[in-house]
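thread: overnight batch results

M.L. [08:02]
morning all. the overnight job finished for the chain we discussed friday. pasting input first so we're all looking at the same thing
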Amino acid sequence: MKKVMLIILDGLGDRPHPSLKYLTPLQAAEIPNMDLMASKGLLGMQYPIAPGVPPGSDTGHLSLFGYNLDEEYPGRGIFEALGEGITLRDGVAFRANFATVSERNGELIVEDRRAGRISGEDAEVLASEISRMSLLRGEVEAEFVHTLEHRGFLILRGDGLSSQVTDVDPHEVGYPVLEPLPIEEEAMKTARALKEFLIRSHEILKGHEVNRRRVKEGKPPANFILPRGASKPVNLERFGDRWGFKPAAVAAGPMYKGIARALGFEVHHPEGATGLPDSDFRGKIREALDLLGEFDFVYVHMKGTDVASHKKDPKLKVEVLERIDEALEQITDPPEDLLVVITGDHATPCLLGKHSGDPVPILFFGKGLPRDDASNFHELDASLGGAGWFLGGDLMKLILNYSDRSLEYGLRPLPRRRWYIPRREELTPLRI
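M.L. [08:03]
and the structure it wrote out:
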């Protein structure tokens, strides 16, 4: 049986771009190592959720890890909190962005959903001003935590709260901030508390000296918090129990570390890994190779490709892909017992600057695997690859197959039907 390294290049999929002579960033990039692996491996295309359905990074990851989104998706906020080491035992967590809004006719219009990707000291100072707030005359306590760049999370704690509230974020610029509405009657209190937090935090932020300075410097002010993805504490089945692996993760972004922790991965954040285009990609791969001595499934997350796409900067995405490719030189001659899988959690076309429902290329590489006629790792060759087109929810079954761990359908050596060949220590032998 083979060990597995799953490398997820966030927002990998793309579309032809005029500034790249109508090539995609993958087609335009000089990526000899990924092309070498493609020429010796197996390519395909996967829809992380379903054709035409734009995944979030959280839903895309959960689907690729083999979880049923209709039954098991808890909302995104909990993953952001877990990524920062906060275990939520009660309350409601939201993912949240600093944003820029303007007031028009009594409405707050979203001008920039990321406040110019505010980061560093400006973000920290503003976050400290709204880090704690008592709401609904003390019935609810709010905690806001800044994480990376414009990102953060909001936690509401108190009796009788529910995560069944609508998003405040309209997910588009030029649209008004939305009223938080209860999806069920039990969420009325949560909606009222969230609305109070939004109004009071806006009053604090809009006149803050940091934002006054940013406006003078021609930068968008971070004068609003956009929460979304409300979630309650979750208890998801551990990845190792579901698929038979001992897993570890190499990631820098809070949300990706949070997903890994929620699924029982041992999380590693190597020095130099920033979750941005300047991240030390070589160090991440080196860390992953070291972890394969103890673990048999290592997930590596690279965020820089998605950041470039959200900036609508295809040339930056090309540069990031080329730097990642240099890091992948370390695995172009893998040991006999290693399966390398490279794909993305969703497409983020640079033309759009947001996630889309486009398919994402995928590469299976390792010794003894089937091969196809593809010679380059990009959307066009992948669309003709031997792995075909499939849904992201089927990825783990393919990984089990190509790592020689698949259990023949219909066999049940364990009380519950499993997809993987069970380890000897999991079996209960007959005693005579």
